[in-house]
């Protein structure tokens, strides 16, 4: 599966790109509850994913989106807020958005040059990440950045390491082989699992996109869902609009940060092109509608493919849904820190459902862990406090899950999936997009 963000361009293609640079407008006046970000540019493959990535890498909440890319031109509008539900007022953030969306290269969310990337996929179990970090500490690897996702009993993890003695990528092929062999044995556990895999290679551009690709390749969407308390499965329907040769995807689910990115990323990696789309989030719910075709211009051509696409989109939405208590660890970095912390989790019966590890240039470790008990149910508060005492009350903090702040739009009709709602929307989407782009005065 192709996942490299950069491709070689000949001089003619570069000239065409320079002549069709995106035009970016950021408006804080028109809408009372959100900042409006407008992007117009020549249409090219993956431009929608690139635009959404710029916004989600800043942890912005996308309340609404209107997207149209028929023909050779791409137009979209995003209504965004910060995580507190406020308009964007920081000029440095606004300038970054303007500059990033105004370029054509896929913006790197973080510079991973000088590091070695390790991929792990396999069966999830309590203490798995603790064993991984213990092996890396034993083999004198310094963990600089890492992310772990779990879904349907599977794990995908991407870990960026450097040689602790040299502070550079691990280039010794024998050492890389030892790392891969030991990690592979941990991921497999006591039972030989065909899909368990480890791999070392040069870093990728975008860590979240790679995690989606790893889980998609691992076919986590096919496995028996793990029952979770107080969670609702996303509703995904797909129908063909034969008259216009579109497949229409409708999604209704709980809103959260990076939701639009996860859906667009998966559609892109499944080789679907988005021609029109809308997103509307109200309260804690989100509704999305996508008009898609294959890259060759044809709609989805079979019920089995529709079922496959539906499963993949549901999995993409569920992967990042955070289960458990959010713990934040902020302390000075040291060799073996992650091995010690995650071992404490394991010894107290806490299971990691998601993790984000980061080390700053100032050598401070900023880490987020989502933990449950061994059965996947909420962890006992007394166990959490015991773990905090062992690690350090001032270092390990209990944080609430970040909430999505949306103002209720009372003018919006109640969302329905399929049926009359879908039929009514088919004829109005393009006009509605043009109206919201400010190109026509009315779409009624």
From TrEMBL:
Coiled coil: none
Stored CDD domains: ACT_ACR_1, ACT_ACR_3
UniProt GO MF annotations: amino acid binding
UniProt keyword annotation of Repeat present: yes
Keyword field: Repeat
TM regions (residue ranges): none
InterPro entries the UniProt entry points to: ACR1-12, ACT-like_dom_sf, ACT_dom
Name assigned to this protein: ACT domain-containing protein ACR
Species for this entry: Kalanchoe fedtschenkoi (Lavender scallops)
């Amino acid at each position: 599966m192709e996942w490299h963000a950069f491709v070689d361009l000949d001089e003619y293609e570069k000239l065409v790109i320079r002549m069709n640079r995106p035009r970016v407008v950021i408006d804080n006046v028109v809408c009372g509850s959100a900042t409006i970000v407008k992007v117009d540019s020549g249409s090219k493959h993956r431009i929608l994913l690139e635009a959404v990535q710029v916004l989600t890498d800043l942890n912005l909440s996308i309340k609404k989106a209107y997207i149209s890319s028929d023909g050779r031109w791409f137009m979209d509008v995003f209504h965004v807020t910060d995580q507190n539900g406020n308009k964007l007022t920081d000029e440095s953030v606004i300038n970054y958005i303007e500059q990033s969306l105004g370029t054509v290269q896929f913006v790197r969310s973080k510079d991973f040059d000088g590091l070695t990337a390790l991929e792990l996929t396999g069966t999830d179990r309590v203490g798995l990440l603790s064993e991984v970090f213990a092996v890396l500490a034993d083999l004198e690897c310094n963990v600089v950045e890492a992310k772990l996702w779990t879904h349907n009993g599977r794990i995908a993890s991407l870990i960026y390491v450097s040689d602790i003695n040299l502070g550079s990528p691990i280039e010794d092929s024998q050492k890389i082989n030892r790392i891969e062999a030991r990690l592979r044995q941990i991921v497999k556990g006591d039972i030989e699992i065909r899909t368990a895999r480890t791999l070392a290679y040069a870093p990728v551009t975008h860590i979240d996109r790679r995690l989606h690709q790893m889980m998609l390749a691992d076919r986590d969407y096919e496995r028996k869902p793990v029952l979770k308390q107080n969670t609702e499965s996303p509703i995904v329907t797909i129908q063909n609009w034969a008259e216009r040769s579109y497949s229409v995807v409708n999604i209704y689910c709980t809103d959260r940060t990076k939701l639009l990115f996860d859906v667009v990323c998966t559609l892109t990696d499944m080789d679907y092109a988005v021609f029109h789309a809308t997103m509307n989030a109200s309260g804690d719910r989100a509704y999305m509608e996508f008009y898609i075709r294959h890259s060759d211009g044809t709609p989805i051509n079979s019920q089995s493919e529709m079922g496959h696409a539906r499963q993949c989109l549901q999995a993409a939405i569920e992967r990042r849904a955070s289960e458990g208590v959010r713990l934040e660890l902020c302390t000075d970095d040291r060799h073996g820190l992650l091995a010690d912390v995650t071992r404490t989790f394991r010894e107290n019966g806490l299971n990691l459902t998601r993790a984000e590890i980061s080390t700053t240039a100032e050598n401070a470790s900023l880490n987020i862990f989502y933990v449950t008990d061994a059965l996947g149910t909420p962890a006992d508060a007394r166990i959490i406090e015991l773990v905090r005492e062992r690690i350090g009350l001032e270092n390990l903090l209990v944080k609430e899950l970040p909430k999505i702040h949306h103002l209720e739009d009372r003018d919006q009709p109640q969302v329905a999936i399929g049926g009359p709602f879908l039929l009514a929307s088919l004829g109005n989407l393009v006009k509605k997009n043009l109206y919201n782009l400010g190109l026509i005065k009315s779409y009624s």
